[in-house]
Amino acid sequence: MKAIIVGGGIGGLTTALMLHARGIQCQIFEAAPAIRELGVGVNVLPHAIRELAELGLLPALDQIGIRTRELIYATRQGQEIWREPRGMDAGYDVPQFSIHRGYLQSMLHRTVLERLGPDAVVTGQACTGYEQNEGAAIVHFADGCATRSASADIVIAADGIHSVIRRQMFPHEAGLKWNGVMMWRGATETEPFLDGRTMIVAGGFTYKLVLYPIARGTQPGKILNNWVVTYRPGADGAPAPKREDWSRRGTHEELMPHVEKFGVDVIDLPALVRATDTFFEYPMCDRDPLPWWTDGRVALIGDAAHPMYPVGSNGASQAIIDAHTLADCLARADHGRAGLAAYQALRLPATSEIVRLNRKGGPEGVIDEVERRAPDGCGDLDTVISFAEREAIVRGYAATAGFSTSQVNQARAS
């Protein structure tokens, strides 16, 4: 069996490593002219790290990321709502990592070239569509004015939220769903806050702050801190901003009034944001779950299959789990089409539920609920929302998304 992977992001690169580990030939075609260290922070949860550990990548992850020790949910005013250990500090057999998306992608890229060979990734190839026949699937690419085609037994579309292959499969799909939230995301080197391994999510429905370290700094005693500030200026269900408005460079003049809404005192947030020379603005978008992901010899994976709101630290994690599941299904199948169908049967229902839960706030729904009940803050939190209610929101999401401690450790043991 031979596979073509369209897209050289985290999902596509992990898929290549998983297929190679099972003796399945593959080649990646990436639209960008080069694999570059773009983006800011992501969290990769233990259920996904388990899969990367299977590939022998834990030492490499320790070189480029931070093992997350603790998660704190707080109000916009800084009052603690929920605190829990994470990763191995929470009893998992594997860690949780906070990491720069670009560093992770670059590490996976290097590993693919080392294990699959220098021709494993072909850049500058923008997918324009696919076709298939009884014997193969054919993908068409454009590189400037030049065009080329490549064929294989199966095609795996890892080409992201704006997937060309998804659009061909579903030409009448409604499109991106915007929840009215704009995000500003950046990272800069500062002194560590708290223990240097803690993640904080503060705010509520209208304003939210996400703050966590993602790498050791280039200077002694410094750490690369990732921050996200969100504001909901639009109505849920309003038309999504045009694609050309994505990744717009943010300005301090526009952002600082929102930053000043927070009273989190573990770090000087205004100073952190002002020290970030370049940061970007994004709309928070997803897509409706699909009825199917496969078309004969072609299948969707990662954000091409199930783009979701970035809450609960699940976007990159679910793409990695997709890659592992897909590789296992293909290795067991008598035919590529049967393997793709088995993968879809396992992953589509699970990720569709996560998309729906993320639309309700995911585990961060606990801070939304506190803000709804006490928008101006409160004295005794338990009079506003009980511990049992808080636990039900946070723990319930973890179980549904497949990363409760027992789920991850049992899967690793099996």
From TrEMBL:
Keywords: Monooxygenase, Oxidoreductase. It comes from the Bacteria. It holds the Pfam family FAD_binding_3. Coiled coil: none annotated. Transmembrane segments: none annotated. SUPFAM superfamilies: FAD-linked reductases, C-terminal domain (SSF54373), FAD/NAD(P)-binding domain (SSF51905). Residues 2-356 form the FAD-binding domain. InterPro entries: FAD-bd, FAD-dep_Monooxygenase_BioMet, FAD/NAD-bd_sf. This is Flavin-dependent oxidoreductase.
